[in-house]
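Appendix C reproduces, verbatim, an entry submitted by the partner laboratory led by Prof. M.T., so that reviewers can inspect both the input and the predicted structure.
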Amino acid sequence: MSSSSTPQVITCKAAVAWGAGEPLVMEEVEVSPPHHSEIRIQVVSTSLCRSDLVAWESQTIFPRVFGHEASGIVESVGEGVTEFKEGDHVLAVFIGECMTCRLCKSGKTNICQALGLERKGVMHSDQKTRFSIKGKPVYHYCAVSSFSEYTVVHSGCAVKVSPNAPLERICLLSCGVAAGLGAAWNVADVSEGSTVVIFGLGTVGLSVAQGAKVRGASRIIGVDSNPQKCEKAKAFGITEVVNPNSCEEPIAQVIKRITDGGADFSFECIGDTDMITTALQSCCDGWGLTVTLGVPKVKPEMSAHYGLLLMGRTLKGSLYGGWKPKSDLPSLVEKYVNKEIKIDDYVTHDLPFDDINKAFNLMREGKCLRCVIHMPR
């Protein structure tokens, strides 16, 4: 498409979810041209994140195109977009950075007032969808909806990256790997020689481990009940693994016993609010810091005895590891290109788009870290 032509509706293939837990169906969808401040992306690679699985199993907005870890190439740009041009390589991200709101300008957070979490399945600008089937709307997910050959995102939810970086791998930086590294570096600021405990050894937990190892943590304890995950963990920096199913005492007591009173840092990477309390209990008095990263499938409310905080512990939430997408992601991609961080090791399966339901099954059965889904080119 030449830069002077007007973008038209594109008909392409998308994996559409029609109901909670139902297998995705390959459908012909119409993808609208990008509106003001939007870009349309040809998706190259997308990976399945546990958040997609949780939403697919539990949410009520359907039909829907899931997917939010994605890399691609800009196909067309909407009115008012000057940052991107056709052919740019980009990462699509589930949180935006408008760079002008109070929060963006504060330097204190990566939360954006204008482009916060999208929950209703529609675009920020007009509360409508850009996907349809025979004139009927198909809803978005997490401002990205990458389980489609083409998607439309707000330009604030995309990051231009080096064309030298392999799109089939850096898609993992759109969520999981970046979230874990950032939790260790930006949110917790893990210190050299410290003791770290990580609850949940999926992609996010193992990315926390990688980040803690880079920072020089002396002991990185992984907690997970899946023996398959435990076997792979040490390659990412985990120094020892505890399986709660093999313990005769509560896991928090085990951690406190083997760390002489508790870890310096604990990370909840499961999405279980009861586990947040356990992670707090596993921290030491005085300065123990717990960071929660998981998205709960049920019971979003949490409870903990006030005494845990009274004794000097801190609980912090982490969204996307504190990274500001536009400001920070290009340098993270550069770290990967320079072999300063690992990404490839998290990819356990490469699958064609037509096998996307296999990816969901593998994750549901705990048999993968990241499945990268490749679009036909």
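The chain has a mean pLDDT of 94. Additional entries are available on request from the coordinating office.
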